[in-house]
Design a protein that fits this description.
The complex is a heterodimer of chains A (382) and B (293).
Chain A: H1 2-27, E1 28-35, H2 42-61, E2 69-76, H3 81-94, E3 99-101, H4 106-118, E4 122-125, E5 140-142, H5 147-161, E6 165-171, H6 174-186, E7 193-200, H7 208-216, E8 221-225, H8 230-240, E9 247-249, H9 256-262, E10 270-273, H10 289-303, H11 309-328, H12 332-340, E11 345-346, E12 351-352, E13 368-373, E14 376-379
Parallel strand pairs in A: 1-2, 1-3, 3-4, 4-5, 6-7, 6-8, 8-9
Antiparallel strand pairs in A: 10-13, 11-12, 13-14
Chain B: H1 2-34, H2 41-57, H3 63-86, H4 94-116, E1 134-136, E2 139-141, H5 143-165, H6 167-177, H7 179-184, H8 189-215, H9 221-236, H10 241-261, H11 267-281
Antiparallel strand pairs in B: 1-2
Helix pairs in contact in B: 1-5, 1-6, 1-8, 1-9, 1-10, 2-3, 2-4, 2-8, 2-9, 3-8, 5-6, 5-8, 6-8, 9-10, 9-11, 10-11
The chains are: A alpha/beta (382), B mainly alpha (293).
Chain lengths: 382, 293
């Protein structure tokens, strides 16, 4: 008897859910957020997910996407590629999302690149590595500026300073490795010799010995490529040793907490970054200024914390998706084609001009060289 | 130039070593009383640093008061952990204790993430600032390294005196060498174990505060610091704080000189190789008596 009742209840539930789900599917459109909300890459995923939650709420208040309410399905990967794979499967096969925004890191993105391709699901990655979009995969896009352009910006400035002999330090992470490779590849083009080229552990607590090595090698500039606290440690150690050479950092330095942490040592550090960090100081002619200030104001008012470029990558991804749906409607393939051919989209990272051969769409002009002055980010005067 | 470089690498090694040593000391105290390794020791270091930063920045306490407050708070957490998770266990096996302390460390780390978020924080330098350094035989050293070494020395002097000359210290050692016999002699063994957690939490927190300006602090720094601290504690011989300091400085200097001649990437490989060699050749540690444990 009990089994019978149980069975009947189950059947009823099934019937009810079967009846309910198509109705639900008709007025909502699911967007997956596959982000490292916690874990070691939380500084990326946390502002990204907050940004998306804010944008989805705004979009729904304006009537949703293509006439449907947007439902954000958040999956926290914790920064692990393995989790990213299984969550990506869930999003594509079970949730049948319209598109996925994320993952936050390059390693995770490469792990799910093929899944998105096979599942014919639009993937808008918030990670920067060039391999994500080169070779091009039909459904895979990314919104941050390319590593290569960050390195080009640095080398162009070195040329101006007459620097020909540098020391390169990087952390043993995907980000550090990708940057190191770009620096090594582009150095000969700019006539720069890498005299010291060392990789340190991402959890490094002090780098005095590494800096001593640079001092002994008589380098004219230091380039450091990492996203960990080590990037704020290395500049302290360099200045403590009396090393007065210019210090270049990657775009990973674009987080004011590292400036606070390095204090006096952060003064004068040069690094390439998007314009979000210096939005207030841009000229009114800059097409990005209005977008940047609007995002900054909305985010900071809502979350009471400083906006970061990483959240900006999610902002750009969501708006690219919105614009594509506005143009092409809720057909996946048509929306994908609309993204691929999008021109002149003004985002937080720069002005996007996508094409079938370029699934990133940003050029060198998306980066600005910044420096630290009186514990704040300012555009470097040239 | 060569001599100058030599001293600079030596000083860099002392910086590494000072950080390792001060974290290692905390491992010895609990080991001395209970014979177990507390894998949550790194979390005490993190809690000390994070609490001090909060007290200093949010409540605007002066630095010494913030550090004292952080030590007290961490002591409270240490006692709470012992009373909640360890005290009621009857003769726990080593394996069980390892699993429990690892579990506690994850718990504390996640709580810290919820409480403080993932931001990197730091205390101001005790003397000077981020760029100041003292000149020593042509090499430059941050004053904070001297503070760390000094704190190591004071902590070890205090602990040695405490364990050797006070009744309470002797009781704690009795508790370690044979808990049943100690209990039969009327010693309050459970309270002594709690006291050992209190002491090591206090020392850990102090370590966290003094290294914080050099290494920064974040909810997850505990693990990394604990791994090196643990390596050093084993290298010196578990339970001996003076040996820990010596081993810490030796390891730091070896690592630093390895950077001179080899790519930095080999630094950790070298320290782990040394650890393995010691475990094979002298299982009781560099300075441990042969045949002990």
């Amino acid at each position: 008897m009990a089994t019978l009742i149980l069975r009947r209840t189950c059947l009823t539930l099934l019937a009810v859910s079967a009846a309910a789900s198509p109705a639900l599917a008709e007025d909502t459109i699911k967007v997956g957020a596959l982000l490292a909300v916690t874990g070691p890459a939380a500084f990326l995923g946390s502002p990204e997910v907050k940004t998306l939650q804010m944008l989805v709420e705004e979009a729904n208040a304006r009537g949703g996407l293509g006439g449907k309410k947007v439902q954000l399905v958040v999956k926290d990967t914790g920064g692990s590629p393995e989790k990213a794979i299984s969550f990506a499967r869930q999003l594509i096969e079970e949730e049948k999302v319209f598109a996925i925004i994320g993952p936050s890191t390059s390693g995770e993105t490469m792990a799910v690149k093929n899944l998105a391709e096979e599942g014919k699901t639009i993937l808008l990655s918030c990670a920067a590595a060039e391999v994500i979009v080169n070779p091009v995969a039909k459904h895979v896009f990314n919104t941050p500026q390319k590593d290569r352009y960050a390195v080009v910006k640095i080398f162009q400035h070195m040329k101006k300073l007459g620097v020909t002999r540098i020391g390169l330090l990087s952390s043993n992470t995907g980000f550090g490795k990708a940057g190191k490779e770009q620096v090594e590849r582009l150095a000969p083009e700019y006539g720069v010799q890498i005299a010291v080229n060392d990789v340190y552990d991402k959890a490094a607590t002090d780098l005095t010995a590494e800096v001593t090595k640079l001092k002994a090698a008589n380098v004219q500039a230091l380039v450091n490529w990492s996203i960990e606290p080590a990037q704020a440690i290395v500049i302290k150690n360099a200045r403590q040793l009396g090393l007065a050479i210019p210090i270049f950092q990657s775009h990973g330095f674009g987080n004011i907490q590292y400036v606070k942490a390095a204090g006096a040592a952060a003064e004068g550090v040069i690094f390439p970054a998007g314009r979000l960090l210096v939005a207030g100081g841009l000229s009114d002619q800059n097409p990005q200024k209005a977008v940047l200030l609007a995002y900054k104001k909305a985010y900071e008012a809502r979350y009471g914390e400083e906006v970061s470029t990483f959240g900006g990558h999610a902002y750009d991804a969501f708006h690219i998706l919105v614009k594509a749906v506005e143009q092409a409607g809720l057909d996946r393939e048509k929306a994908r084609a609309a993204i691929e051919n999008m021109k002149g989209f003004v985002g937080t990272a720069g002005v996007f001009n996508l094409s079938p051969a370029d699934h990133n769409g940003l050029d060198l002009g998306a980066f600005e060289l910044l420096t630290v002055k009186d514990r704040r980010f300012v555009v470097l005067d040239r | 130039m060569f001599a100058e470089l030599f001293f600079q690498y030596l000083v860099a090694g002392l910086t590494y070593g000072a950080i390792y040593a001060i974290v290692a000391i905390g491992f010895n105290i609990i080991y001395n009383t209970t014979g177990i390794i507390n894998f949550a020791q790194g979390e005490f270091v993190m809690l000390g640093g994070m609490t001090a930063v909060t007290l200093h920045e949010r409540l605007r306490l002066p630095l010494p008061a913030a550090i004292a407050g952080a030590v007290l708070v961490t002591i409270g957490v240490g006692a709470l952990i012992e009373v909640t998770f360890i005290r009621w266990l009857e003769k726990p096996s080593v394996l069980r204790m390892i699993v429990i302390t690892i579990g506690v460390s994850i718990l504390v780390r996640e709580a810290a993430l919820l409480l403080w978020g993932q931001d990197v924080r730091t205390l101001p330098y005790f003397t000077g600032d981020e760029v100041s350094s003292l000149s020593l035989l042509g090499a430059r050293i941050s004053p904070q390294v001297l503070w760390t070494l000094g704190t190591c020395a004071v902590a070890v002097a205090f602990l040695s005196a405490f364990f050797k000359f006070t009744m309470l210290g002797r009781e704690m050692r009795a508790c370690a060498s044979n808990r049943d016999a100690a209990a039969l002699c009327g010693l309050p063994t459970r309270n002594l174990v709690t006291l050992s957690f209190v002491l090591s939490a206090g020392i850990g927190a102090l370590a966290g505060c003094v290294v914080c300006p050099i290494t920064y602090t974040q909810y997850n720094v505990g693990t990394g610091l604990a791994i090196k601290g643990f390596t050093v504690a084993i290298l010196g011989g578990l339970g001996d704080s003076v040996a820990s300091i010596a081993a810490g400085l030796i390891l730091g200097v070896v690592e630093s000189f390895s950077v001179w001649v080899l790519p930095t990437a080999y630094k950790d490989a070298i320290s782990i190789s040394i650890l393995l060699a010691i475990l094979f050749l002298r299982p009781s540690g560099l300075f441990g008596a042969k045949g002990s444990r």
